[in-house]
Amino acid sequence: xxxxxxxxxxxxxxxxxxxxxxxxxxxxxxxxxxxxxxxxxxxxxxxxxxxxxxxxxxxxxxxxxxxxxxxxxxxxxxxxxxxxxxxxxxxxxxxxxx
Length: 98
Description:
This is DUF721 domain-containing protein. By secondary structure, the protein is of the alpha+beta class.
């Protein structure tokens, strides 16, 4: 009989709770938001209102019209970067900038 694992990393616990309660997409959105915080300057990151992942569509709300346009023009670049961050190509099928 196999012994049960008694020690867990905090990230393993968070991931298992997310799987049980169905908010895995929100955790992935937080990973992308953390990436954007590192990638963009503080002023540009302040223009991002929210990052959500729903039904394999990443939705980013941005206040600044210039930054919105930049994200739209470089959509394929950002999709590729976000897929690299999540290490899974099947999680994001499209990027929607609002």
